[in-house]
């Protein structure tokens, strides 16, 4: 692996645009790219580390997913996170993402108390927002049911079998959830509430911003704050009455927010940066071939990762956004030129063929000179006819009608021939006395 993964990893979904017909495509109207192939991506600061394809439909879902996580009561969406983070090196069989070295940031599509407890057991930190509703797939799969296995005696065969028993999984703290669902407008801006999970392994937060934000974490205490410059909200924004009190008459204000909120805003965008790198100079075009958008995703991902590894990449903390955009554009241009330069062949100029004239004689005995066929495709003009100014008698069929209508006369030119002297390489046609003239010229030397 050329890229050494940093401590902050991100798992999120992305959509590769495709508007043709395929059973695997999804349609999510709220996404910037609503229709196309869905892909689960693991990234670090814009560098794509791993991904899983997704197929729509009941009985489908993430492709090549480790089914062992499903038997432990995790949904397919949650199993994606565990599958991507527990990959092993094919040579050493060691975990690629070592225990105690990484924190994974998740949005509310993935976050659950049970998933975070499992990640903590794997010594991987986790933090992310929580939703108050379920997706349709979560309702179908029964997210709130953790299926475990208990041994039971079989009376007939005296063998021990396994019986599936449904046990309710721990959900987000109900009191904190009621703050968002019921008392959101009564809470003042900046109020922070917290609680521990039943296992005391995950801490749960409810922080009042424009709206109440529900949060899970295994790596934060909730005590640290940081000052950030915030803009005055619009009058039509959610939670305007609670938020505007902190600004007075100013357009901006320095407000204290919890550190875990600031870090979430900073590190959750790992997959989004990779999407931006692909979308700026994408090779994907409108077509109906199902494999082409998948190839474009792989190719654009390779280009984006190459940019992240290159010296063109600017410091992510740089405030000069235009400079970062220009460096990405320059990288793509230089990569294009390098690829095309390697495929260019230097064409050598073809030297025009020049036949020997009538006087380019090779003085050897006359008996060695033979009149035979020397040329196949490129037929030169007869040297003897050229010297004697004798033109060809073959009519030009394409210009015959024009000649009769306008009185146009074809220019005089000697005939072409495939025959010539085998020694002198002088073209000599088979009509008339061309060969006899050449033999006569040879006899003058003798």
Q: Would you summarize the structure shown here?
A:
This protein is of the alpha+beta class and 446 residues long. It has helices at residues 76-85, 113-121, 136-141, 174-181, 240-243, 259-267, 270-280, 291-309, 321-342, 383-388, 400-406, 434-445; strands at residues 8-17, 26-27, 35-44, 47-55, 61-62, 103-106, 125-129, 145-153, 160-168, 192-196, 203-208, 212-217, 225-231, 252-258, 371-373, 419-421.
What descriptive keywords fit this protein?
2 domains, ten-stranded mixed β-sheet, two-stranded antiparallel ribbon
Question: How would you portray this structure in words?
Answer:
The chain has 446 residues and is an alpha+beta fold. The protein folds into two domains: 8-154 and 161-284 and 291-305, no CATH class; 366-445, no CATH class. The protein has twelve helices and 16 strands. The protein is elongated and about 120 Å long. The model is unreliable at 143-168 (pLDDT under 50).
């Amino acid at each position: 692996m050329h890229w050494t993964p940093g401590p902050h990893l991100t798992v999120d979904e992305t959509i590769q645009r495709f508007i043709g017909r395929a059973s695997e495509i999804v349609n999510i109207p709220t996404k910037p790219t609503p229709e196309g192939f869905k892909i689960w991506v693991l990234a670090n600061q814009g560098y794509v580390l791993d991904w899983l394809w997704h197929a729509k439909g009941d009985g489908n879902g993430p492709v090549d997913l480790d089914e062992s996580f499903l038997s432990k009561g995790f949904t397919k969406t949650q199993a994606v996170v565990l599958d991507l983070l527990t990959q092993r090196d094919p040579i050493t069989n060691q975990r690629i993402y070592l225990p105690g070295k990484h924190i994974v940031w998740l949005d509310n599509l993935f976050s659950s108390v049970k998933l975070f407890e499992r990640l903590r057991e794997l010594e991987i930190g986790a933090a992310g927002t929580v939703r108050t509703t379920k997706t349709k797939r979560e309702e179908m799969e029964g997210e709130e049911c953790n299926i475990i296995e208990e041994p039971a005696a079989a009376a007939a065969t005296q063998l021990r079998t396994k019986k599936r028993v449904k046990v309710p999984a721990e959900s987000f703290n109900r009191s904190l959830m009621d703050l968002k669902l019921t008392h959101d407008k009564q809470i003042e801006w900046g109020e922070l509430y917290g609680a521990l999970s039943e296992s005391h392994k995950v801490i749960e937060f409810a922080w009042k911003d424009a709206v109440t934000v529900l949060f899970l974490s295994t790596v934060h205490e909730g005590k640290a704050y940081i000052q950030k410059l915030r803009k005055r909200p619009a009058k039509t924004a959610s939670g305007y009455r609670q938020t505007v009190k902190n600004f007075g008459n100013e357009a901006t204000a320095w407000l204290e927010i919890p550190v875990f909120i600031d870090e979430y805003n900073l590190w959750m965008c790992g997959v989004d940066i990779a999407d931006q790198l692909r979308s700026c100079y994408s090779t994907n075009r409108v077509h109906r071939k199902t494999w082409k958008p998948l190839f474009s995703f792989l190719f654009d991902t390779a280009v984006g990762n190459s940019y992240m590894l290159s010296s063109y990449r600017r410091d992510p903390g740089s405030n000069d956004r235009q400079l970062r955009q220009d460096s990405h554009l320059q990288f793509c241009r230089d990569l294009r030129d390098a690829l095309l330069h390697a495929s260019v062949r230097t064409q050598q100029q073809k030297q025009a063929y020049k036949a020997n004239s009538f006087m380019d004689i090779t003085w050897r005995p006359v008996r060695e000179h033979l009149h035979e066929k020397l040329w196949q495709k490129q037929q030169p003009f007869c040297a003897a006819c050229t010297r004697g100014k004798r033109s060809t008698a073959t009519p030009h069929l394409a210009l015959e009608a024009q000649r009769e209508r306008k009185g146009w006369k074809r220019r005089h030119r000697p005939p072409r021939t495939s025959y010539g002297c085998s020694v002198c390489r002088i073209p000599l046609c088979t009509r008339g006395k061309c060969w006899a003239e050449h033999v006569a010229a040879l006899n003058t030397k003798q």
